[in-house]
Amino acid sequence: MLKTLSILTLAPLALLASVGSVAAQDGLFEDITVGVAVGAGTMGAVIEPQVRFNEYFGIRAPIGFGQYDFEFSDSELTYDSSLTLGGAGVLADFFPLQGGLRLSGGVIATNEEIDVTARADDIVLDGITYGTVEIDGKVSPDQPIQPVVALGYSSNTSIISLDVDVGLRFSGSWTATLDNASTGVGVDQVSDETLRNEERAIEDEFNRYQVTPFIKIGGRLRF
Fold first, then answer.
1. What number is the average pLDDT over the span 123-132?
2. Where would you tag: which of 57, 94, 97, 141 has the fewest CB atoms within 10 A of its CB?
3. C-alpha span between 41 and 63 (Å, rounded)
4. Nearest by Cα to 48 from 57, 59, 56, 150
5. pLDDT band of 16, cuts 50, 70, 90
6. What is the distance between the alpha carbons of residues 59 and 90, in angstroms, rounded to a whole number?
7. What is the 3-state secondary structure (H, E, C) of the chain?
8. Predicted TM-score of the model (pTM)
9. CA 62 to CA 110: how far, in whole Å?
10. Rounded distance, CA 112 to CA 216, Å?
11. Among 112, 93, 115, residue whose Cα is nearest residue 43
12. How far is the C-alpha of 209 from the C-alpha of 169, rounded, in Å?
């Protein structure tokens, strides 16, 4: 996971550096400016190197990280869940009014994953009565490379400015993998058939959200 995160983080930075260098050397963009935005949003805490080539076009590399804890329930069980946020991406910007308003599109290589745990006493699952059950597992997106479209704002005239994005991320479907969490005394083992049914129930719940918000708010420093 650390190696993957390192690749996701360094790749967009390398792309920004190479594009900016080539553009500057070839004289394609005489008004090129660079900056960095720091903020928070649906990717967690975000740091975002930015290059604006001219009045109309720019490119950014958002890098996010964080964690969010929540609960959700299917028909019988309540799961304590921990969502790992973040990843890295590349967004191309178009400034139609030559100011701060921007239209953006690109991709996010997400490292999101949800750890889930459920414990229950005296419960009936698939017609079988259990004294105590403990189930844990993971829920992961089937599509780790996710398209993004957004409307945003970032001034290119001020050294420090507001930096905002509001848009959509096309997350796709999710896959759940569950197992018995404990083989200890007093803990019943849930059947494989019931575990597969629980996986399908969780997937049905998360697959309701195949298009999710893409939101970021923070500040930008122009160099």
1. 87
2. 97
3. 11
4. 59
5. very low
6. 7
7. CHHHHHHHHHHHHHHHHHHHHHHHHHCCCCCCEEEEEEEEECCEEEEEEEEECCCCEEEECCEEEEEEEEEEECCCCEEEEEEEEEEEEEEEEECCCCCCEEEEEEEEEECCEEEEEEEEEEEEECCEEEEEEEEEEEEEECCCEEEEEEEEEECCCCCEEEEEEEEEEECCCEEEEEEECCCCCCCCCCCHHHHHHHHHHHHHHHHHHCEEEEEEEEEEEEC
8. 0.79
9. 11
10. 17
11. 112
12. 10
Considering 97-101, 103-107, 116-120, the range whose residues carry the highest mean pLDDT is 103-107
Please tell me the distance from the alpha carbon of residue 90 to that of residue 80, in angstroms, as a whole number: 32
Structure tokens at 215: 């939101």
pLDDT at 158 over 90: no
Average pLDDT, the chain: 86
Residue 184: the pLDDT is 67
Find out whether 78 and 66 touch, Cβ atoms under 8 Å: no
Taking the C-alpha atoms of residue 163 and residue 37, their distance in angstroms, rounded to an integer, is 7
Question: Tokens in use for 25?
Answer: 């050397």
Confidence label for 28 from pLDDT (cuts 50, 70 and 90): low
- CA neighbor of 46 nearest in space, from 60, 61, 65: 65
Top-confidence residue, 28 or 182:
182
What does R_g of the chain's alpha carbons equal in angstroms?
22
- 94, 59 contact by CB (below 8 A): no
